[in-house]
């Protein structure tokens, strides 16, 4: 890739060297480009998304956050495809928070590619057409005799001009109102395995994550917070802390005590010597057992209707067979490898922030609120993210840095410990679910009832709970209870737990009806042809009907989420002492047009590892209002040697483009649990799978 | 505070630090070498792995004074030689997702290959089992280690 244009790294240097004033001046109202000196070097920047300089270097703006899902590569590929650019000339510019220039920059919901698809194609096509017009003007020939290809405009006579040579003329032309997009069959870059642009820097240790930004004059800080959610500081004594070498200051920031120091380590150590008296508040005596009891009691009565069809009560009355089961999902944490952190430099009239955030505009709003500054006086630079998974949609860690910098009047890097990160997360909700199903005399489901109780946020609790199956009478009702536990989006959100519940219970119904789980689902997917095709494709690739060695069980599951469909077949065995081996997981996914197959495969593998950790490892539990887990020893993830073989198959598809970061997560737990049932007859109703759950009695 | 002389990537560096400060923070906060990552601070994850005299060490639980007199190799040292077969293999397999744990994974793999240039799958499992990756890049890490093992020595240049 070209290194002559602004990379993320040089940009940070430029920004900090030039000072906030110059950087902010990029955002003067009415200024179309965020690049300083655009006119001087004859760059062509027809829109916010790209810039072609006189030397031919192409810089494509990425307005979403790179957290491993590959948007630094996939989004520029979309622009470059329509632009007919030479991919080797492309580098990227990570956009700062700027709502009016970029629209939403929130990176979640597996939305980056599908949400930018048309915008970015239009941006690239617009520039392409203008470059063609520039060549036609220069040669004084008809546009129709000119064609753009691989960074050049070619004339029918064989002469050609590079984009760099044309950029100055193109910059003088009017922007066309509408442009023709390429036919998808003519794509030459999209659909290819393109190496990720950020990989070399990540391999060389040069990639800049939040914690790696260095600002002149900055100090380091870490904040002691009440271990109980919502607790407040009553009083504190920082005398012993202040006496430690390297500690600069101890300051209260709202509900925490910040230790400011010359190194992150000195700040961490300083916290150990703090003496803080907390008002632990109303949740001080709560345990996760209490929360479970609260949920278990509440499901005894009818909840708020979330979704329904037909008349579920009379359908159950008429059903020949009914089945009931309780499914329990625990609180789980995100556990990004890079703990929460942020750098803020608050001045009287402005604030500059460097943050590994999925939502820079929310951070901008939060800083603006805290400081009482207008939005355009708050600049948020997005660094690389050492994992996101939904955790970094929240701005609590940005608020931390803003408050500390405001208090001490210096730029500061606020870093959370691993334990802070585990104990002050926004967890996937714990839920308690009663499932009831009714079959008619032919074993066909006629009634489905899912009653869920969960904490605080309805959408996070009930998302993905409506079954995709054509069951004439169904009801989902909910009880949402305040538990004081922060709840947030966790890679694949509602479907991550409800996919497990729906796909496990439909499996229970299939077995109760004495039918093959694949055929049972196929017969019910009449309203979801895309999901049905994906299911069938997975079954075909996994050779569903082929017999397995003795002791090996096979399970299937399919979930539509984030605009894509994903089906998985897991093959497992359980030995006599109850230990589980997952032999392989076969995955079929339909995400519509394929941008970068290599990234898709990586995301599917990654989603499976993420889901397996929640299925097989630890849960977040609460005792005396405190999260009991802290680090990688008591909140574990699956290890290198525990990763099963994963086979990924993409469905050839003419469906609309879908997301890919999350859709592989929901089918994992049910496919594995259904395989465990097939192998052992043991049904998993409560996550995670615990030691002893699979031991036959 | 003490004056320590550290040999980092073949260069001698003098630092005035608390001798108990973990090497990780000397590298990151004192010397500005941010390639080595903080993730747990308790030696549980290996994101901070460096080589001390060629062996993998978790710099978050290694006091700076302990590293004095030893040859310290960090990811920056390894990357001085862009032809390093391990780094080339890591790029060829496009291993990283978020990338945060990758310097530690690479240093752990470098130590493995130094001891055992042709590791079997079980050797790779044993060496990498205590280095979690939340993005689940495990299959590609395995491929990269195998690719590198077929290509020649992986450390000994740039850092030593």
SSE layout:
The complex is a heterodimer of chains A (697) and B (160).
Chain A: H1 8-25, E1 44-47, E2 50-52, E3 58-62, H2 71-83, E4 90-94, H3 99-102, H4 112-139, E5 146-149, E6 152-155, E7 160-162, H5 163-170, H6 199-203, E8 219-225, E9 232-237, H7 239-242, E10 247-253, E11 256-261, H8 264-272, E12 275-279, H9 288-298, E13 304-309, H10 312-318, E14 321-329, E15 341-347, E16 350-355, H11 360-371, E17 378-382, H12 396-408, E18 412-415, H13 418-423, E19 431-439, E20 445-455, H14 458-462, E21 473-481, H15 493-512, H16 517-524, H17 529-541, E22 552-561, E23 564-574, E24 580-590, H18 597-616, E25 622-623, E26 626-627, E27 645-650, H19 668-680
Parallel strand pairs in A: 3-4, 8-18, 16-17, 20-21, 24-27
Antiparallel strand pairs in A: 1-2, 2-3, 5-6, 6-7, 8-11, 9-12, 10-11, 13-21, 14-19, 15-16, 15-18, 19-20, 22-23, 23-24, 25-26
Chain B: E1 2-8, E2 11-17, H1 23-30, E3 49-52, E4 55-58, H2 64-67, E5 71-73, H3 75-78, H4 85-92, H5 102-115, H6 121-128, H7 138-149
Parallel strand pairs in B: 1-5
Antiparallel strand pairs in B: 1-2, 3-4, 3-5
Helix pairs in contact in B: 4-7, 5-6
Outline the structure in words.
The complex is a heterodimer of chains A (697) and B (160). The radius of gyration of chain A is 27 Å and the shape is globular. Chain A has a seven-stranded mixed β-sheet with strand order 10-11-8-18-15-16-17, sandwiched between helices. A five-stranded mixed β-sheet of chain A has the order 13-21-20-19-14, with helices on both faces. In chain A, strands 1-2-3-4 form a four-stranded mixed β-sheet. Chain A folds into three domains: 8-203, 2-Layer Sandwich (Aldehyde Oxidoreductase, domain 4); 210-281 and 340-415, Aldehyde Oxidoreductase, domain 4 (2-Layer Sandwich); 288-331 and 427-680, 2-Layer Sandwich (Aldehyde Oxidoreductase, domain 4). With 697 residues, chain A is α+β, with helices and mostly antiparallel strands. Mean pLDDT of chain A is 93; it is low at 1-41. In chain A, 31% of the residues lie in helices and 24% in strands. Chain B has 160 residues and is of the alpha+beta class. Chain B folds into two domains: 2-77, Roll (Ubiquitin-like (UB roll)); 79-149, [2Fe-2S]-binding domain (DNA polymerase, domain 1, Orthogonal Bundle), CATH 1.10.150. Helices cover 36% and strands 16% of the residues of chain B. Chain B has a five-stranded mixed β-sheet with strand order 2-1-5-3-4, sandwiched between helices. In chain B, helix 4 (85-92) packs across helix 7 (138-149) and helix 5 packs across helix 6. The two termini of chain B are 28 Å apart. The model of chain B is unreliable at 156-160 (pLDDT under 50). The chains are: A alpha+beta (697), B alpha+beta (160). The interface between A and B is large, with 63 and 60 residues.
């Amino acid at each position: 890739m070209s290194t002559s244009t602004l990379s993320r790294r040089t940009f940070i240097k430029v920004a900090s060297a030039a000072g906030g004033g110059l950087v902010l001046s990029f955002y003067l109202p009415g200024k179309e480009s965020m690049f300083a000196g655009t006119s001087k070097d004859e760059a062509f920047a027809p829109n916010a998304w790209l810039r072609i300089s006189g030397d031919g270097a192409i810089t494509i703006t990425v307005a979403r956050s790179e957290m491993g899902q590959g948007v630094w590569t996939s989004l520029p590929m979309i622009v470059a495809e329509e632009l007919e650019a030479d991919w080797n000339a492309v580098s990227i510019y990570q956009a700062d928070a700027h709502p009016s220039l970029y629209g939403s920059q929130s990176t979640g919901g597996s939305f980056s590619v599908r949400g930018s698809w048309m915008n970015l194609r239009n941006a690239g096509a617009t520039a392409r057409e203008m470059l063609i017009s520039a060549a036609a003007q220069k040669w004084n020939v008809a546009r129709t005799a000119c064609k753009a290809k691989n960074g050049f405009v070619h004339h029918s006579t064989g002469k050609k001009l590079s984009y760099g040579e044309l950029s100055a003329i193109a910059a003088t032309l009017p922007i066309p109102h509408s442009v023709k997009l390429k036919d998808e069959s003519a794509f030459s870059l999209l659909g290819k395995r393109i190496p990720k642009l950020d990989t070399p820097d990540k391999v060389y240790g040069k990639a800049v994550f939040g914690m790696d930004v260095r600002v002149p004059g900055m100090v380091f800080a870490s904040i002691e917070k009440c271990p109980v959610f919502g607790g407040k500081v009553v009083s504190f004594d920082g005398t012993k802390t202040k006496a430690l070498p390297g500690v600069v200051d101890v300051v209260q920031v709202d509900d925490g005590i910040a230790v400011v120091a010359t190194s992150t380590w000195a700040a961490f150590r300083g916290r150990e010597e703090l003496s803080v008296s907390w008002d632990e508040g109303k949740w001080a005596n709560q345990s996760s057992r209490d929360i479970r009891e609260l949920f278990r009691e509440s499901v005894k009565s009818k909840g708020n209707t979330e979704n329904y069809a037909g008349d579920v009560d009379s359908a159950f009355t008429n059903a020949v067979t009914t089945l009931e089961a309780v499914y329990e999902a625990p609180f789980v944490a995100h556990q990004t490898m890079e703990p929460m952190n942020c750098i803020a430099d608050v001045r009287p009239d402005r604030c500059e922030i460097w943050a590994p955030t999925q939502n820079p505009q929310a951070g901008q709003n939060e800083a603006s609120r805290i400081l009482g500054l207008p939005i355009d006086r708050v600049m948020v630079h997005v660094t690389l993210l050492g994992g996101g998974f939904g955790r970094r949609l929240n701005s609590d860690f940005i608020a931390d840095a803003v408050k500390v910098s405001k208090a001490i009047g210096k730029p500061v890097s606020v870093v959370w410990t691993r334990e802070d990160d585990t104990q002050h997360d926004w967890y996937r909700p714990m839920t308690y679910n009663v499932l009831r199903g009714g079959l008619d005399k032919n074993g066909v489901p006629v009634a489905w009832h899912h009653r869920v109780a969960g904490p605080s946020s309805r959408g996070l609790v009930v998302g993905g709970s409506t079954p995709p199956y054509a069951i004439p009478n169904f009801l989902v009702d909910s009880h949402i209870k305040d538990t004081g536990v922060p709840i947030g989006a966790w890679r694949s959100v509602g479907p991550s737990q409800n996919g497990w519940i729906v796909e496990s219970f439909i499996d229970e119904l299939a077995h109760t009806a004495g039918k093959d789980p694949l055929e049972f689902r196929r017969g019910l997917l009449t309203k979801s042809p895309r999901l049905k095709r994906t299911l069938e494709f997975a079954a075909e690739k996994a050779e569903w009907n082929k017999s397995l060695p003795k002791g090996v069980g096979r399970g299937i599951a399919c979930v539509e989420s984030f605009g894509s469909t994903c089906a998985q077949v897991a093959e497992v065995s359980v030995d006599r002492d109850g230990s589980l081996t997952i032999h392989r997981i076969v995955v079929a996914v339909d995400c519509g047009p394929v941008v970068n197959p290599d990234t898709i495969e990586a995301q599917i593998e990654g989603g499976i590892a993420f889901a397996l950790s929640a299925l097989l490892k630890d849960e977040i539990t609460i005792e005396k209002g405190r999260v009991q887990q802290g680090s990688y020893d008591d909140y574990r993830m699956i290890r290198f040697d525990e990763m099963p073989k994963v086979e990924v198959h993409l469905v050839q598809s003419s469906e609309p483009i879908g997301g890919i970061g999350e859709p592989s997560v929901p089918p994992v737990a049910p496919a594995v649990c259904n395989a465990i049932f097939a192998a052992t007859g043991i049904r998993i109703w409560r996550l995670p799978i615990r030691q002893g759950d699979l031991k036959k009695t | 505070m003490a004056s320590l002389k550290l040999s980092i990537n073949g260069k001698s560096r003098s630092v005035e630090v608390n001798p108990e400060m973990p090497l990780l923070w000397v590298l990151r906060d004192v010397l500005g070498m941010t390639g080595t990552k903080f993730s747990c601070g308790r030696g549980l994850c290996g994101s901070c792995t460096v080589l001390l005299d060629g062996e993998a060490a978790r710099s978050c639980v290694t006091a700076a004074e302990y590293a004095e007199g030893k040859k310290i190799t960090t990811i920056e040292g390894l990357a001085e030689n862009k032809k390093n077969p391990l780094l080339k293999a890591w790029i060829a397999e496009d291993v990283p997702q978020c990338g945060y744990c990758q310097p530690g994974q690479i240093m752990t793999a470098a130590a493995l290959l130094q001891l055992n240039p042709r590791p079997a799958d079980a050797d790779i499992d044993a060496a990498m089992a205590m280095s979690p990756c939340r993005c689940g890049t495990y299959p590609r890490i395995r491929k990269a280690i195998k690719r590198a093992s077929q290509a020649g020595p992986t450390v000994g240049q740039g850092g030593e």
